[in-house]
């Protein structure tokens, strides 16, 4: 596990990741870094450090590659169509398991939970994912306790969230958990996030 008091949060990015799965948590956590006395470091990284193209065409240049990102306290693993190839890649699943061994808090957005399930991380545990992917998740690991109603599920060292915009709610929960409810409220105000839909 990382030592010291400096919190480091890594958001893993990959081709065909869903845009808001990445930038929603990034916005929340970066706003937290800006206003918090804890000054957490928030960065993005891809497997090899190369740029990626998200599901709808947004291109991102990550801060680092997986080999040089360094120790993390929190990993955010987004969803998107790109997860389907990754959950069938034995080398990638081994990387996920290795990362888990050194990272205190593993989180996922949307279908990122499918990769966690394929890596054996969700066996017998409560979890959620995008509403359209529950059947897929059940096939990957029938022992997962599916929560089809929650915006996010906090099961200690693993936190999963439902689809797309739910990653914002999960990230605010992480701020509350890692610092305080007041800090999460301050971030929510900073980004002017109102969870009540306008229509």
From TrEMBL:
Coiled coil: none annotated. It comes from Cellulomonas humilata. Residues 8-176 form the DJ-1/PfpI domain. This is DJ-1/PfpI family protein. Pfam families: DJ-1_PfpI (PF01965). InterPro entries: Class_I_gatase-like, DJ-1/PfpI, INH-QAR.
């Amino acid at each position: 596990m990382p030592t010291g008091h400096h919190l480091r949060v890594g958001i893993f990015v990959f081709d065909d990741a869903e845009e808001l799965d990445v930038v929603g948590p990034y916005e929340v956590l970066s706003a937290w870094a800006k206003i918090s006395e804890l000054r957490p470091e928030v960065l993005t990284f891809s497997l090899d450090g190369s740029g990626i193209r998200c599901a709808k065409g947004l291109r991102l240049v990550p801060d680092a590659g997986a080999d040089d990102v360094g120790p993390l306290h929190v990993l955010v693993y987004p969803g998107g169509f790109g997860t389907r190839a990754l959950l069938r890649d034995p080398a990638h699943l081994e990387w996920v398991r290795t990362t888990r061994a050194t990272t205190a808090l593993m989180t996922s957005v949307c279908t990122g939970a499918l990769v966690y399930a394929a890596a054996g991380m969700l066996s017998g545990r409560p979890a959620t994912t995008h509403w359209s992917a529950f059947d897929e998740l059940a096939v990957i690991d029938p022992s997962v306790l599916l929560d089809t109603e929650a915006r996010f599920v906090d099961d200690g060292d693993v936190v999963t969230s439902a689809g797309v915009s739910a990653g914002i709610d999960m990230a605010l929960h992480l701020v509350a958990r890692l610092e305080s409810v007041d800090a999460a409220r301050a971030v929510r105000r900073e980004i002017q996030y109102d969870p009540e839909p306008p229509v």
